Request: fold
Amino acid sequence: MVQTVVAPVVTALLYLLIFAHVLEDRVQVYGSVPYTSFLIPGLMMMSMLQNSFANPSSSLIQSRITGNLVFILLPPMSHREIFSAYILAAVARGLCVGAGVWAIALFFVSMPVSNFLWILVFAVLSCGIMGILGLIAGLWSEKFDQLAAFQNFLIMPATFLSGVFYSIHSLPPFWQAVSRWNPVFYTIDGFRYGFFAVSDVSPWRSLAVVAAVFLALCFFALRLLASGYKLRN
Reply:
């Protein structure tokens, strides 16, 4: 509980305290939205994504290293059931961390909610995407170094360069274009729309991108599990 929920909430709180203190009076986003309020949904989503990825990836790599990965194959479960177990656990952890960040943030600033259903849909799909990526990384990695490389060179850059701390309209045109090729940007922008009813791109476009990425990763991960990739051989 402390490591999986409390620690990431404290980390997000530190980001909030530092960035809100330094940039509150220097950055203006969405017209009337205070920077601290703008920052909170981004921190919530960043925390949810990172922890959703960590849940299945760390579980699989630990099982591989300790030699008990074979016990995943012994029960009479289909590859779809194994997939569902890992992804549901990842989503549950991500949502718990996000709720914790939200609860702590309310002590600092009031957060409007324009459309809670929109928030929930993006939260679940986004955690699902990172949970599937964590599952793929856990299957592919044979040691912690490989898993760390996957996280440090793919997950972390995509998360930090996705508009967590800024609106992409504050970027030069080239970097705006680069940001639009980052799927994580759409998870955060659509999630933020649920709070403020404003966003950098159309929320329907964000939903289409996030849903398409989720379905594509589902198909790919299920194929890996069905083939027994690095599980049976």
Notes: The chain has eight helices and no strands. The chain has one domain: 2-227. The mean pLDDT is 86. Residues 125 and 214 are 7 Å apart (CA to CA).
